[in-house]
Amino acid sequence: MPNNIILGSGIAGISAGYHLKQKGIDSVIYEKDNDWGGLCGNFTIDGFRFDRFVHFTFTKDEYIAGIFEKSSPLYAHPSVSYNYYQGCWLKHPAINNLAALPTETKVKIITDFVNRPHTEVADIQNYDEWLRVQNGNYFTDNFAAVYTRKYWGQSPKDMETKWIGNRIYSPALEEVLRGSYSEQAANFYYTNYMKYPKKGGFRSILDDCRQGLDIRFNKKVVRISPSSKQIFFADGSCETYSRLISSLPLPEIVKMIDGCPTEVLTAAEHLNWTCGYQVSLGFNRPDVAKYLWFYIYDADIPPARVYSPNLKSPDNAPEGCSSLQAEIFYANDAEISPAELVLKQTVDKLKSVCGFSDSDILVQDIRFERYANVTFTHGIYHHREIILKYLTSQGIESIGRFGKWDYLWTFQAFKTGMEI
Ligand SMILES: Cc1cc2nc3c(=O)[nH]c(=O)nc-3n(C[C@H](O)[C@H](O)[C@H](O)COP(=O)(O)OP(=O)(O)OC[C@H]3O[C@@H](n4cnc5c(N)ncnc54)[C@H](O)[C@@H]3O)c2cc1C
């Protein structure tokens, strides 16, 4: 009897299991955690539900949107977010909405924007150059480069630029000038709406397709033998597979494979990613959260981004309450500050940013994710290719954000599961 095994019950693994099932093919999903969803999952504390980082869906793919929508009715929130910089609130994108800044800062930003280098895109060597060509030096040095270090854990010089695509808006002088007088009504975000399930947290978009799937929890894979087609788990058990589909992170899986060549292990050592803390806060007041999400540029405030679970859906917080979750990122090889310290620093700083006090807090929690974003440091494509070619040669089909090692949003991770 064929034994189709899928590793990981995140959105990619669930999509793989669902699409095999649609073809009448059974599979078993093995998951190291005690619940499904991976990064799409959530946790609840005293009636406050928090996703594992921000999470909205904005896919234009009708087939995938149909599956998500069939699982759960969705709110469509206008994609309006804000930026916090030294006590000022600027609508996103900041460069298009400078109005709230002091005059001197605006003058420096606009002067440097006008005098920005005009390098041909093909000649741009790294993300730092790209930022300067887009924004000018002052905005890059004081906003974008600081944010890059907070979000990507890297200096912009150490990153390449192919990942950018339409993710970051490139402003025109007219827009920058207009936004320096008053906040612009126009939305410059890459999508007009951010959709979110009315009930059950983000992972509810998968409720329909996960039905009937055989997911086995607390099954951490620790070793894979492609020659005997066996996988071994941390609990000492072992399974034989006929087909193996994995959404495990590339740097992890290569270390599990018997006889993995040095060249492949070395390539994996060159991959970079971010890991990070989620600081989750529940309040006894309905009005702490004012923005669906916002970015923080100040280097002395730990979070790069903060979002509001209760504004995503009131179902995420008890009645009369509000909530925030702050995201704090590190490079995978950086020294990670202790959780208690990060929690304290974050709460202390957010008190003045968001206007709350200790007596407003009902719930505070901090947890760590080992894998958040793939980082596009130089050489990524070369090293990734070595690893993926090797996995293919061993008959392992790699899917998902960390299995493809790419900047995939949920619908794109879902698609990789669909394509197997
Ligand atoms: C900060 C942040 C914000 C994001 N916001 C959005 C957003 O707003 N919209 C959007 O579309 N996307 C967003 N994403 C991206 C989205 O989270 C991912 O694309 C998607 O969840 C990846 O799914 P996956 O199944 O590929 O990986 P994962 O969700 O990581 O699933 C992998 C699974 O494998 C399991 N696993 C790992 N190792 C083992 C092992 N040894 N044995 C067994 N199981 C194992 C893990 O526990 C996990 O369940 C965001 C990501 C981050 C980090």
Describe the protein.
By secondary structure, this protein is an alpha/beta fold. Among the domains are: 4-41 and 201-270 and 379-419, FAD/NAD(P)-binding domain (3-Layer(bba) Sandwich), CATH 3.50.50; 82-188, no CATH class. It contains 14 helices and 20 strands. It has helices at residues 11-22, 62-71, 103-114, 127-135, 137-152, 173-181, 207-210, 250-256, 262-269, 309-312, 339-354, 380-393, 401-404, 410-419; strands at residues 4-7, 28-30, 42-45, 48-51, 74-78, 82-85, 88-91, 193-197, 214-216, 221-225, 230-233, 238-240, 243-246, 272-283, 293-296, 305-307, 322-331, 361-369, 374-375, 396-398. Strands 6, 7, 14, 15, 16, 17, 18 and 19 form an 8-stranded mixed sheet that branches. A 5-stranded parallel sheet has the order 9-2-1-13-20. Strands 10-11-12 form a 3-stranded antiparallel sheet. Strand 10 (221-225) and strand 11 (230-233) form a beta hairpin. Helix 1 (11-22) packs parallel to helix 14 (410-419) and helix 8 (250-256) runs antiparallel to helix 9. The chain is globular and about 70 Å long. The model has no long low-confidence stretch (mean pLDDT 96). The structure holds flavin-adenine dinucleotide (FAD).
Question: What topology emerges from the helices and strands here?
Answer:
Elements: E1 4-7, H1 11-22, E2 28-30, E3 42-45, E4 48-51, H2 62-71, E5 74-78, E6 82-85, E7 88-91, H3 103-114, H4 127-135, H5 137-152, H6 173-181, E8 193-197, H7 207-210, E9 214-216, E10 221-225, E11 230-233, E12 238-240, E13 243-246, H8 250-256, H9 262-269, E14 272-283, E15 293-296, E16 305-307, H10 309-312, E17 322-331, H11 339-354, E18 361-369, E19 374-375, H12 380-393, E20 396-398, H13 401-404, H14 410-419
Parallel strand pairs: 1-2, 1-13, 2-9, 6-15, 13-20
Antiparallel strand pairs: 3-4, 5-8, 6-7, 10-11, 11-12, 14-17, 14-18, 14-19, 15-16, 16-17
Helix pairs in contact: 1-14, 3-6, 4-5, 8-9, 9-12
Bound molecules: flavin-adenine dinucleotide.
Flavin-adenine dinucleotide (FAD) binds at residues 7-13, 30-33, 38-40, 53-57, 220-221, 247-248, 252, 327, 371-373, 400-402, 408-411, 413.
